[in-house]
Specification:
heterodimer; A: mainly beta; 4-stranded antiparallel beta sheet; globular; B: mainly beta; 6-stranded mixed beta sheet
């Protein structure tokens, strides 16, 4: 059981480029969550997805950010036209349908915008 | 606005010391409170607390929840250098799978 897999671990983008962050949930988990951690701040909820459905995107910025969890393949968090303020650690977590005993987190993707 | 506040923000102790980390919360629909340990990578799950007054234990770590006073504590006894990490407290809201996280307590244990 490989756990929650995120890639890449580190991503450097120039301002205006696109960033794509990928997350494969744990085997048997059908719920995926994305959180963002800014320096010296707590994890902030962004979006909650199930296969082919966005359940709650109340934490997503209105522009430039989108997320998907297709029927096949990993969940993708996409940031278009990145700006310096998007530099952060982006964590994905997954849980079984019941919600279970807490999320299982991936190791995160650290995005640096230069 | 839902919020979770942790204290202290950081703490430096020596091996063998006992530490108490605090987490208070103000949320509209409380479901459970969780503690995570974050080293340089993925936060790892420690405890989930749902009921007041029932202590959860795992080795040298223990935690308890007070739903009347809206706080939880995480105790670590006989600390070791491997306990150095950021400890995160989160509240799960009912009716949603969203968690509200505190900013964490950074613990450093010196040999």
């Amino acid at each position: 059981n490989a756990g929650v897999m995120q890639n890449p671990r580190h991503l450097v983008r120039r301002r205006g480029q696109e960033a794509r962050l990928r997350c494969s949930p744990m085997k048997g988990h059908s719920h995926v969550y994305w959180y963002r951690q800014l320096p010296e701040e707590g994890l902030k909820f962004m979006v909650y997805l199930q296969k082919e459905n966005i359940i709650d995107e109340s934490g997503m910025p209105k522009e430039r950010f989108s997320a998907e969890f297709p029927k096949e393949g990993p969940s993708i968090l996409r940031i278009q036209q990145v700006v310096r303020g998007d530099s952060a650690a982006y964590f994905c977590a997954s849980s079984p349908p019941s919600g279970g005993y807490g999320y299982t987190f991936g190791s995160g993707t650290r995005l640096t915008v230069v | 606005e839902d919020k979770v506040v942790q204290s202290p923000l950081s703490l430096v102790v020596h091996e063998g010391d006992t530490v108490t980390l605090n987490c208070s919360y103000e949320v509209t629909n409380f479901r459970s409170l969780l503690w995570y340990k974050q080293e340089k990578k993925a936060p790892t799950f420690l405890f989930m607390l749902t009921s007041s007054g029932i202590e959860k234990k795992s080795g040298r770590l223990s935690s308890i929840l007070d739903k009347k006073e809206l706080f939880s504590i995480l105790n670590i006894t006989a600390t070791q250098t491997g306990d150095s990490a950021v400890y995160l407290c989160a509240v799960a809201l009912s009716g949603t799978y969203k968690y509200i996280f505190g900013t964490g307590t950074r613990l450093k244990v010196l040999a």
